[in-house]
Recover the amino acids of this structure.
């Protein structure tokens, strides 16, 4: 079998992806070589491919930030991991490949009850949901939360986890099918933003009080309405920008509600290996309890990643998508 990576030689559309043969490297000190079995698809991959985020290298780029696989070789100094172990990771970029070398302290063991496909789709999305709910704004039973893109990969996890924590989850989604999917994943109320004004609906649902927190991965078209939807002293957590960046924001926009606003990034919350392990352990425990589930709803061959990106950009996917090398 010939190993390969899907490479983007320059920023642009999904048609820029090229399949390139690669030769597996030997792992160095503190490293592992993984035979990848499943790779998660995320909107951040599109940001990287487009060049929305500056490319970190002056060369061809391999995007992709979460995957699962089997340890194929172990470098010097690695303890606690052996050839044949099933592991998963989230690392900024490099995942769109059949085999790769990664730092051993960035992977976590996959519990026996969890499949590679599920693990590959929760390392970035699941731990994003974890840090949002536990660190960016720690929710409490009885809170009310608004989540945009409720039928997306992170959105479906947030809805379930919020419900398990005793929080009333209000979601926005586009179209009847996605609204129904969100309802099936923990949302007490779902607003179809193709047909309804979410600000007015949130005011109606909350009796004019507003929500304690907004988790917003859409940003460009939702941030102003999100601030209006907050309760006094509420929190606006913008963790993505699927509809483009926030523009025109001024600190004084927070004054009408004495609101707090933050723009966090997952990788700042898992930079420490111990924190990574704790968050992963708690996420896998939530999966084991059934508090959250993450069954991939779409599957593409890694070689067909251009089709997967086009589907995600055109809002033709819901929930998690997995790429198979």
């Amino acid at each position: 079998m010939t190993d390969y990576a899907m490479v983007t030689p320059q920023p642009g559309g999904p048609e820029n992806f090229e399949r390139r043969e690669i030769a597996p490297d030997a792992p160095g000190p503190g490293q592992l070589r993984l035979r990848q079995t499943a790779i998660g698809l995320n909107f951040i991959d599109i940001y990287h491919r487009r060049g929305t985020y500056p490319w970190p290298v002056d060369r061809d780029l391999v995007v992709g930030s979460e995957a699962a696989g089997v340890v194929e070789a172990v470098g010097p100094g690695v303890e606690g991991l052996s050839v044949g172990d099933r592991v998963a990771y989230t690392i900024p970029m490099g995942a769109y490949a059949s085999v790769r070398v990664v730092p051993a302290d960035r992977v976590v063991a996959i519990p026996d009850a969890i499949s590679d496909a599920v693990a590959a789709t929760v390392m970035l999305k699941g731990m994003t949901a974890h840090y949002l709910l536990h660190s960016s704004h720690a929710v409490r039973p009885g809170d009310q939360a608004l989540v945009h893109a409720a039928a997306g990969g992170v959105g479906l996890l947030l809805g379930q986890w919020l419900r398990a924590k005793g929080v009333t989850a209000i979601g926005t989604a586009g179209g009847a099918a996605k609204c129904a999917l969100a309802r099936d994943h923990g949302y007490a109320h779902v607003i179809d933003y193709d047909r309804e004004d979410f600000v007015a609906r949130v005011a109606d649902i909350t009796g004019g009080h507003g929500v304690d927190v907004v988790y917003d991965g859409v940003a460009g078209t939702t941030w102003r309405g999100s601030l209006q939807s907050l309760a006094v002293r509420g929190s606006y957590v913008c963790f993505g920008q699927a509809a483009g960046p926030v523009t025109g924001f001024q600190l004084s926009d927070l004054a009408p509600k004495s609101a707090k606003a933050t723009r966090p990034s997952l990788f700042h919350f898992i930079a420490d290996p111990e924190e990574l392990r704790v968050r992963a352990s708690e996420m896998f425990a939530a999966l084991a309890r059934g508090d959250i589930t993450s069954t991939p709803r779409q599957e593409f061959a890694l070689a067909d990643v251009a089709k997967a990106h086009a589907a995600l950009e055109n809002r033709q996917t819901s929930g998690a998508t997995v790429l198979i090398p």
